[in-house]
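User: I need a structural model of DUF2999 family protein from Shewanella psychropiezotolerans for a docking pre-check later this week. Nothing fancy, just the predicted structure tokens so I can convert them on my end. Input:
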Amino acid sequence: MNPILAILKEHNVSDAQIKDLFQTLTENPMAAMATIGQLGIPPEKLQQLMGLVMQNPALIKEAVVELGLDFSKVEAAKAQLQK
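Assistant: Understood. Predicted structure tokens for DUF2999 family protein:
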């Protein structure tokens, strides 16, 4: 299992919440950050999660694909943020 998904599940984040989070990520990465903050994950675990993503951004793609979402939307959102 993807380590991002594993951390979320470890903190009792439901499959529906995980899918919603990654759906939000594909549409609006900034909104996804706010959503992550509302999941009740302890700050130290959230920091670990962010560290994983910073060290290995490919984990996001793996998680999106594992959830059956369209990664091209993540790329489009990222490009929009860079404008």
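Before docking, keep this in mind: The mean pLDDT is 85.
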